[in-house]
């Protein structure tokens, strides 16, 4: 009996309910677009900010600088055990990292900062760097062959573009404090637009051996997996794993990334709530008009023994139907809208997030059900005798 009454009611007033669904479609479409854009933007913005380099750095608490070594301030020996513990902490946190050793050397008549690091990790940490290869054995994305130094007759080196312009790309003679001297073979060049353009990069283990500083590390550059990473917790784990080493965020990157994302997400949230409230008001006004139109019908149902449960079930189900229809259409509309916005803003679209579907459906049905509350209260206050008298 209930379903016959419900289907009959929907069939007689489908135009009004369709209009309410269109209003809800606009609201849920905006919510779906903003939610999907928020998730996609967070991922895309993280990728964009990653081009700026590391967001945190691990430094020795007590630098092992000795005068006359040529070792730049901040370098300290790291035991294999401590290195493995820090590596475990960073790997479990899904962080990208690269150990760094800075040594002051001399090339020709000029001083030069020589940087030792693990090249593939360093390049993953700095995706915005331009790297050129001058040797078939050098691939920025792959490890160097173990016997490359012996094969080419020197230590493989990458040089910044400023050094390339000043000294060229032929073999260079590099000397360190204490009279240590080694031959460099230029296998590539780097352009960063920063101080790295005037530096020389060689593999970490080869620099440690050449400079006579086995195990020495100046810093470990770290790129956290996103703005939601807990820097403080990770810093505590690093300090516990390797006493004497501390981790701190690079404020220019980490703070800018987090603040920008939070502000944009807050703006999107406010816009979505405002649009959704407008849609809910439109549904509420439509359902109020429906209740007023059906006042005699509701009065007759109550006079024939229909209880309050029959009335509120029918109105609530109509509201849920409106919300569901609007949410499904709004989901498709919102996905297309977020894709178009992302295409214009970032040059690439965003995929439909797995969270967007349940959030949109839940918000649409919930808002429509909430919009029925006031019309439902009015319907339940209808006096059967007065309604039938007209």
Relevant terms:
2 domains, 390 residues, single chain, alpha+beta, 12 strands, two-stranded antiparallel ribbon, six-stranded mixed barrel, 14 helices
Describe what you observe in this structure.
- The protein is α+β, with helices and mostly antiparallel strands.
- It folds into two domains: 180 residues, no CATH class; 195 residues, no CATH class.
- It is built from 14 helices and twelve strands.
- Strands 3-4-9-6-8-7 form a six-stranded mixed beta barrel. The protein has a two-stranded antiparallel ribbon with strand order 2-10.
- A hairpin with a 4-residue loop joins strand 7 and strand 8.
- It is elongated and about 110 Å long.
- The two termini are 26 Å apart.
- About 3% of the residues have low confidence.
Spans of 5+ residues with little confidence (pLDDT < 50)?
62-74
Query: What oligomeric assembly is this protein in?
Result: single chain
Strand-residue fraction? 15-25%
Radius of gyration: 33 Å
Helices and strands, with pairings:
Layout lengths: L1 H11 L1 H37 L5 E5 L15 E2 L2 H13 L3 E12 L2 E8 L1 H7 L4 E4 L14 H5 L2 E6 H7 L4 E5 L4 E11 L7 E5 H7 L5 E2 L1 E5 L7 H11 L3 E5 L1 H43 L1 H9 L4 H39 L9 H16 L1 H8 L3 H6 L1
Parallel strand pairs: 4-9, 6-8
Antiparallel strand pairs: 1-11, 1-12, 2-10, 3-4, 3-7, 3-11, 5-8, 6-9, 7-8
Helix pairs in contact: 2-9, 2-11, 2-12, 3-8, 9-12, 9-13, 11-12, 11-13
Task: Write a short abstract of this structure.
The chain is α+β, with helices and mostly antiparallel strands. It has helices spanning 2-12, 14-50, 80-92, 119-125, 148-152, 161-167, 204-210, 231-241, 251-293, 295-303, 308-346, 356-371, 373-380, 384-389; strands at residues 56-60, 76-77, 96-107, 110-117, 130-133, 155-160, 172-176, 181-191, 199-203, 216-217, 219-223, 245-249. Strands 3-4-9-6-8-7 form a six-stranded mixed barrel. The protein has a two-stranded antiparallel ribbon with strand order 2-10.
């Amino acid at each position: 009996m209930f379903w016959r009454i419900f289907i009959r009611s929907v069939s007689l007033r489908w135009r009004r309910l369709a209009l309410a669904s269109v209003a809800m479609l606009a609201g849920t479409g905006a919510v779906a677009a903003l939610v999907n854009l928020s998730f996609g933007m967070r991922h895309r913005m993280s990728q964009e900010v990653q081009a700026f380099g590391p967001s945190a750095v691990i430094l020795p608490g007590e630098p092992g600088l000795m005068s006359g070594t040529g070792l730049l301030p901040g370098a300290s020996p790291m035991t294999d055990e401590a290195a493995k513990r820090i590596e475990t902490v960073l790997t479990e946190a899904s962080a990208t990292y690269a150990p760094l050793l800075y040594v002051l050397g001399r090339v020709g008549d000029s001083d030069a900062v020589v940087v030792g690091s693990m090249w593939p990790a360093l390049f993953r940490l700095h995706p915005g760097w331009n790297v050129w290869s001058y040797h078939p054995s050098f691939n920025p994305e792959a490890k160097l062959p173990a016997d490359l130094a012996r094969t080419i007759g020197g230590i493989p080196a990458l040089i910044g573009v400023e050094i390339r312009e000043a000294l060229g790309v032929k073999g260079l003679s590099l000397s360190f404090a204490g009279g240590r001297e080694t031959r460099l073979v230029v296998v590539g060049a780097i352009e960063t637009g920063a101080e790295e353009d005037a530096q020389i990069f060689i593999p970490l283990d080869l620099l440690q051996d050449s400079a006579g500083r086995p195990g020495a590390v100046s810093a470990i550059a770290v790129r956290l997996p996103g703005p939601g990473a807990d820097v403080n917790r990770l810093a505590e784990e690093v300090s516990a794993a390797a006493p004497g080493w501390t981790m701190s965020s690079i404020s220019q990157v980490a703070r800018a990334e987090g603040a920008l994302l939070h502000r944009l997400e807050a703006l999107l949230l406010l816009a979505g709530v405002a649009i959704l409230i407008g849609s809910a008001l439109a549904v509420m006004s439509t359902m109020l008009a429906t209740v007023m139109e059906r006042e005699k019908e509701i009065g007759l149902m109550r006079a024939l023994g229909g209880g309050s449960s029959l009335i509120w079930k029918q109105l609530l189900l109509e509201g849920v139907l409106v919300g569901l229809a609007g949410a499904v259409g709004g989901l498709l509309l919102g996905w297309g809208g977020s894709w178009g916005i992302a295409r214009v803003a970032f040059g690439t679209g965003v995929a439909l997030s797995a969270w967007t579907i349940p959030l949109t459906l839940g918000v649409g049905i919930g808002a429509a059900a909430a919009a029925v509350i006031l019309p439902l209260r009015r319907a339940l206050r209808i006096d059967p005798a007065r309604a039938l008298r007209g």
